[in-house]
Design a protein that fits this description.
Helix content is 30%, strand content 18%. The chain is of the alpha/beta class and 391 residues long.
Length: 391
């Protein structure tokens, strides 16, 4: 499929730094879809950057459609984490005549890239584009996990129209449904209805308050390692660090924490798409937010090129196996620790008839804290959530 018809080349001179070729900066190493050079070949590409100029369904944040090129201005100036990066910037998907036209273009482009084993980085635009990203997996027949770095759940209300704050409801209700798990990282309770929290529990989804995450940021790593798709709302970062958003909060992650989360995401062998949304250059101060977004992407790329390829469906001799008996429980909890990276997984028992369908989900990323919890005869929450889904 020729996806170039959906993408508009960018104007490279707009991103010129100082007229000097530095050879190590990202802007010098990218293969760029420009108006001068045309659409790049994708046969040797690992990551593709896509801008989406769409914000019609945003809540008071319509200027986010201008974010992609503003983020590029800072991203291109950063030195690459390694010299031989294989990244293409495919340009921008312009807003269609109707919102569904934009969604179709986003879905088609991302689906094509996924089938070529190319990881898309989506620079929005508003966060309802997460729905289009999710739909890209439908053609692949793949049951997936979503992780959102967000101060709320974006469930919306039953009586309101679909928008950037209700996209998750549209995903949950979509048929056929191929969402296995949703994880919210960093919600702020005063932005979330208590009924919504109960709904998340009833659906066996994983939600973590901001304070819980910030108290031990390393525990984010297994959460994002379990995701296929990550949706990062820039509004999850506190206003002091990311003022470029029409709906800011004085509380949230700081810039360093946001970059650390992005690096953890990049390290995940399972993750296959990453989107960052709701950046509004019109509300920004001296490019502070667009610069931070560029650094978030940089850390994601750095993590990507340090992947270990150690998801434990591979050679068992590369892992240490631990079995923990839980009193009055039918199943032991089986842990695997990678000899390459030191990362941990828990194996959730599953009927052989369903193992093919849920092949990517019964090995649950965890940390040594979950192993220690099991050794204290308590069932780790992550294990129990997945077990209930697979029963």
């Amino acid at each position: 499929m020729d996806i170039s018809i959906y993408l508009e080349g960018i104007n490279i001179p707009a991103f010129d730094i100082d007229g000097v070729i530095h050879q190590r900066r990202i802007g010098d190493l990218l293969q760029i879809h420009s108006r001068e050079s045309g659409f790049p070949a994708l046969d040797q590409i690992d990551i593709a950057i896509i801008g989406v100029n769409e914000s019609r369904l945003s809540i008071n944040n319509f200027g986010s459609k201008e974010a992609p090129d503003e983020v590029r201005k800072f991203l291109y100036r950063l030195y690459a984490p390694k010299r031989n990066i294989r990244i293409a910037d495919l340009g921008n998907i312009r807003a269609g005549h109707d919102i569904d036209d934009t969604y179709f273009a986003v879905k088609t482009v991302i689906s094509s890239l996924l089938k070529q084993n190319i990881l898309p980085i989506i620079i929005g635009g508003s966060q309802d584009l997460t729905y289009a990203n999710y739909m890209a997996y439908e053609n692949m027949g793949q049951i997936i996990n979503i992780a959102a770095i967000d101060s709320s759940f974006d469930l919306g209300n039953a009586e309101e129209n679909f928008n950037s704050r209700s996209y998750l409801s549209k995903i949950i209700l979509h048929q056929p449904n191929f969402l296995f798990n949703y994880t919210n990282i960093g919600y702020q309770t005063y932005f979330v209805d208590q009924d919504a929290i109960q709904l998340m529990k009833n659906l066996f989804f994983d939600v973590y308050r901001l304070g819980e995450i910030r108290s031990d940021i390393e525990e984010v790593e297994p959460l994002v390692r379990n995701a296929d798709l990550i949706s990062f709302d820039i509004g999850a970062i506190r206003q002091n660090d990311a003022p470029g958003n029409a709906n800011p909060s004085p509380n949230g992650f700081n810039g360093e924490e946001a970059c650390r989360i992005a690096r953890y995401a990049g390290l995940s062998d399972k993750l296959s798409s990453f989107g960052i949304y709701e950046i509004n250059p019109a509300m920004d101060l001296n490019g502070q937010t667009t610069h931070l977004a560029a650094q978030i992407i940089w850390y994601f790329i750095e993590g990507f090129y340090q992947r270990k390829g150690d998801f434990p469906h591979k050679q068992k001799q590369d892992y240490l196996k631990y079995m923990v008996a839980i009193a009055e429980k039918e199943h032991d909890i089986v842990f695997f620790k990678s000899k390459k990276s030191g990362r941990w997984w828990m194996q959730v028992p599953i009927d052989d008839a369903y193992q093919g369908k849920y092949d990517r989900h019964f090995m649950v990323p965890c940390s040594i804290k979950d192993y220690e919890t099991a050794n204290h005869k308590e069932i780790p929450d992550k294990w129990w959530q997945v077990y209930q889904k697979l029963m």
